[in-house]
Amino acid sequence: MPEPITEQGHRVLTLWQGSWVAAFAVGILVWGLIVWTVIFHRKRSEQLPPQVRYNMPIEALYTVLPIVIIAVLFYFTARDQTALMSTEEEADTNVEVVAFQWSWQFNYLEESASEGEPQARFSVAGTPERRPTLVLREGDVVHFDLTSPDVIHSFWIPAFAFKMDVIPGQDNEFQVEVQEGTAGTYAGRCAELCGVDHARMLFDVEVMEPDAYDAWVAEQEARAQQQETSEQPGESGPEDPEIDMPGPEGEGPQDEAIEEEPADEAGVPAPANEEAGR
């Protein structure tokens, strides 16, 4: 298993290892009983061994023992799942993960999306040709909000030892605590078969030291502010030229007011009276 870089990842690894220890113990017990039976109860003569209808202690053992094993595994699984899904701790970084066909977008938010509609500080988006990078800081508690506009994806970072589905119409969330001394680059990918280009939904995770991360965030915020400023429309001044709007038929500038023909006392235009006279 890869060495987890989060506090929650170590909990997952411990649960996984404990489950394997229990499985090996059960396997050794079962195979030991099989070998013991084959050796000590092999056929030695033509005499038929004593026949019994049941053995109460043995039957009680193989009924109670599996129940005990399942109950113990259930307890540790439920305990760790509750801890993994807890989002009560205040987060240092809030990231909205948008999975779409066929890449990822990471929106760095002021606060968790579950608190309402927070404003995005800046965003990092990728394409199938250019994978995006999710940047995190050592020691941070990071809150993730997962959303998808199209189909079901799965947000998986193997170094987290954890993954969660990204489901349209259902916003999932979880958070992790990135451990100190884990600076480096890690892999991320979609773990759900989401379509023809599923294999191209890759991204990188870069964990930075605090100073480097703060400098990167400042750079991203400045770039986002500059882009927002450049996209603001200019205000029209008093000397702006008038724009000819299309007429009712969409054929050129709006026509000037048409002078109506004089009408008679009945309100019928003169040309119409002449036509009627003919």
Automatic annotation (TrEMBL):
Residue span(s) of domain Cytochrome oxidase subunit II copper A binding: 90-219
Biased composition (Low complexity): 221-232
Domain Cytochrome oxidase subunit II transmembrane region profile residue range list: 1-88
Alphabetical list of PANTHER family matching this protein: CYTOCHROME C OXIDASE SUBUNIT 2, CYTOCHROME C OXIDASE, SUBUNIT II
Protein name (record): cytochrome-c oxidase
Membrane-protein topology: Multi-pass membrane protein
Listed Gene3D superfamilies: 1.10.287.90, Cupredoxins - blue copper proteins
Keyword set, alphabetical order: Copper, Electron transport, Membrane, Metal-binding, Respiratory chain, Translocase, Transmembrane, Transmembrane helix, Transport
Recorded family membership: Belongs to the cytochrome c oxidase subunit 2 family.
Keyword Transmembrane helix part of the UniProt annotation: yes
Region (Disordered): 221-278
NCBIfam families per the UniProt record, alphabetical: CoxB
EC number: 7.1.1.9
Record field: transmembrane: 20-39, 60-78
